[in-house]
Amino acid sequence: MKQTLRKRAVFRLTRNLLLMLVFLISINKIQAQAIWDNTSFVHRNGQKIHNGQNTAINLDGVNIGSWLMWEGLMWGGGLISEKDITNKMTSIIGPVAFNNFKDSVYKNYITRADIERISQECYNVVRIPFNHNLLEDDANPFVYKPEGWEILDSVLKWCEDYNVYAVLDMHAAPGGQATHFIADPDSIDLWNSPVNKNRTIQLWKAIADRYKNRGIIAAYDLLNEPNIWWWPDLVNLYDNIIDSIRMVDTNHMIMLEGNNYAQEFSIFTSLPDSNICFQFHYYTFFFSAPDIPAWTALSNSLNVPIWCGEWGEDTLGGMQNKLTTILRNLENKISGQAFWTWKTVTVGFQNPHSLNVNNPTDWNNTMLWATYNSPIVTPLEMQNGIDSFIVNMKLQNCVVDTGVFNMLKMCSVSGIQNIEAQKSLNVYPNPFTNSINIEGKVENEYYELLNSTGQTIWTGKQINNHDFSSLTNGLYFLRIYKGNSTQTTKLIKN
After folding, report:
1. Which of 70, 162, 329, 330 could anchor a disulfide with 119, C-beta 3.0 to 4.6 Å?
2. CB of 294 within 8 A of CB of 286?
3. Whole-model pTM?
4. Residue range(s) defining the domain that contains residue 458
5. What is the CATH number of the domain that holds 430?
């Protein structure tokens, strides 16, 4: 009897030590969630990014591209801009049907559920690329659209609810800051139009005035991937935009991307503002290889943080190499990264992304016609394609690329959970106030609730309607043990 008891005691001790060892190994990789309020803000502190509580942080997350700024390549087409897509689709289905389509994309491509899912993966930031025409029509400059503000207001509220910082990224300025489709250019671009320059300056002032007290915003990213041969024009425009922002908003950090598509930073010999971060993009299809040593040298010489605002668009192995390079330099002045991108239409030749939107025949033909004028599509076929696209883009209908999720694996405490598993085990409400419930649960050995530092604060066999009102607001992890398997879900109390 005593021998049996000793064996059981040794087993329990060994099991607990192993669990503790696994947890200690993984806890070191937990990404800090957004800690924010509306009176203190993310800011530069020398070569580091600090939160409002003046603690050094890395901003690690994803881009939510092709939602408020469209690219044909992300929607199953070719190298076409938002204007190309707009004009080609309008010519077939007419302006009324096209505007209905645009509204549906805004309402369904990224929703509250996407931000919740991003938070559950322990990302602490989303970069939000937007086209200037979300807020201002080219035919009616300097008049800002209420429906555009409502969209930005909504996504910022979702970010607040799930503790995910936001970087507002002007992906396409009036006229276009580059000639390629990624800037949605006009025949007269930003650099050759004093009116477009002024529109850009005034739009950023309006954005800053509206959001000057929103602590969830980590930074304003003034221009995505600018490209101009006369680089002093870019520096001068940056100076003017910053001056206009600081007239109404002294709180927020400003991100500046280098010339030559966020690659060339030698144009900066001093900081145009005290609260600045430089942002580079890490792709290998540029004319020259990204020069991280030069960028870290820039960080040293100007005492400024640098951040990788985009990377990806490669084979899985190639992206793993990029991520290793970025992580290797995290201690070397790079203050985090945002993967490109969260969601795209599935095309066989395309590089992997986080989530794939199924590409039915009518939508595939619509994008092929918009890109190559072939095959010809009828209004009915295009509308059928639109209807399928709107359904397929919703989070619950997307297909997870497990290779990408496992490569990024930001949430090391919980591991990578797929959407299908979450459907079968619904933990709600999340965020919670007083109690937690599990729907569709099976018989489990026990539950364990951990705080954000990994301390176990509650265990038990029954959790539904248990009173957790005394817990402080913040991030928690619910670990569910069943036999030899374990599942962990991130929870927010507020």
Report:
1. 162
2. no
3. 0.80
4. 425-494
5. 2.60.40
